[in-house]
Amino acid sequence: MIEINEEVCTGCEKCIKICPVDAIYMEEGIAKLNEDECISCGACIAACPVDAIEPVIEAKRAEDLSDYQDVWVFAEQHEGDFKATGPQLLGKGRELADELDEKLCAVVIGKDVKDAAEELFCYGAEKVYIVQDDLLKEYSTEGYTAALTKLISKYKPNILLYGATHLGRDLAPSVAGRLGLGLTADCTGLSIEEVEGRKVLLQTRPAFGGNVMADIVCPNSRPQMATVRPHVMEPLERDPKRDGEMIEEEVRISKDIISSEILDILEPERAGEIPVEEADVVVTGGRGVGSCREDFEILSDLADILGGTVGCSRPIVEEDIMPKSKQVGQSGKTISPKLYIVCGVSGAIQHKVGIRDSDYIIAINKDRDAPIFDMADFGLVGDVDKVLPLLIEKLKDLKD
């Protein structure tokens, strides 16, 4: 929410022109706020030339929570194709909604997404809320935050889940900050527990470098929000006979509130290739693999057998051998696959931070003192050029 200092306001009307939901109006030459319409997007704060508008963050207390109902899942999509996290979270959301005796709902934001959103009913959604606008075709923090905060303010969900993707990790904290909500990041477990006589969402996530599992609750704010790692939840079996209610909500998005511009979209080099941050299996190569693109083809062979994708370390990107989208590590993509095979990477701290949430790590390096072995579950000391062909041959034999 925002607050307008009427003593400072000069009546220039710049806030009115930029407000995407017409929540500000003029009365006797002073800007006034319609609190029921405000979505806390912050556009007016930046537009005001005299700093008469200030943000007001108020966490919703327990006594205000009786109207908050239903479990929502933010279903991330790109050009109508849904990320796997949507169906996965709907599977877990079904369990939570049943225990709370509430409805399971999905939220879709984009352009021309109505037909694609029908697919979410097949995975258990009883209601699907959609917001469509030309300016929402590509993701922007401000545009998506404006749309989602409007939905939350109007429909008041009890729980809202996001995938812990790059988009989800950006959108969720933005919404939390705008609405004064709690948020737990990178959860690996969700359940319903009773706390002080009220059923709340118990959010479980690794802490202290994965050495302990922390259980977190947000008893005094709604919706209870969490980002959930990809592939840790199982989707329901797709059933095309399932049906539900489609709710279209209009949110007027102003171009003036969007501070970024999409210049180019980098697509995977191979059609159908899984992004490294979404793959269950990632095979990564470093300087020890080679110094040209052809040297990394053997990693693709191994990844194809295992149904995974190929990543690389920072030096490989800097030497223009592989694209930035493949870089694994703190300055690249932070990943959490079920199996991570790392070849010819020494194990700098930046790389280790980006892979520490992997379920199993197999390291191959000819330097037995390489730091990567310190965090590997299994280590093979040897030349990658000799080890990988043998490993691929054995895997092919097992598949045959």
In short:
This protein has 400 residues and is α/β, with parallel strands linked by helices.
Q: Enter the CATH topology name of the largest domain.
A: Rossmann fold
Strand composition percent: 25-35%
By DSSP, the count of extended strands is: 21
Q: Which structural category fits the helices and strands?
A: alpha/beta
Which residues form runs of ≥5 with pLDDT under 50? none
Spatial sequence of strands, sheet with the most strands: 11-15-10-5-8-9-16
Mean of residue pLDDT values: 86
Count up the domains. 3
Tags for this entry?
Rossmann fold, globular, about 400 residues, 21 strands, 7-stranded parallel beta sheet, 5-stranded parallel beta sheet, Alpha-Beta Plaits, alpha/beta
Q: Could you describe the 3D structure shown?
A:
With 400 residues, this protein is an alpha/beta fold. The protein has three domains: 2-55, Alpha-Beta Plaits; 62-255, Rossmann fold (3-Layer(aba) Sandwich), CATH 3.40.50; 281-399, 3-Layer(aba) Sandwich (Rossmann fold), CATH 3.40.50.1220. 25% of the residues lie in helices and 25% in strands. The chain has helices at 14-18, 43-47, 85-100, 114-117, 119-122, 141-155, 166-179, 297-306, 314-318, 349-355, 384-399, and strands at 2-4, 24-27, 30-33, 53-55, 71-74, 77-78, 81-82, 104-110, 127-132, 159-163, 183-187, 189-195, 198-207, 212-216, 224-228, 245-248, 281-285, 309-312, 339-343, 360-365, 378-381. The strands form six sheets. A seven-stranded parallel sheet has the order 11-15-10-5-8-9-16. It has a five-stranded parallel sheet with strand order 18-17-19-20-21. Strand 19, helix 10 and strand 20 (360-365) form a beta-alpha-beta unit. Helix 6 (141-155) crosses helix 7 and helix 8 (297-306) runs parallel beside helix 11. The longest helix has 16 residues, at 85-100. It starts with a strand and ends with a helix. 40% of the residues are buried. The mean pLDDT is 86.
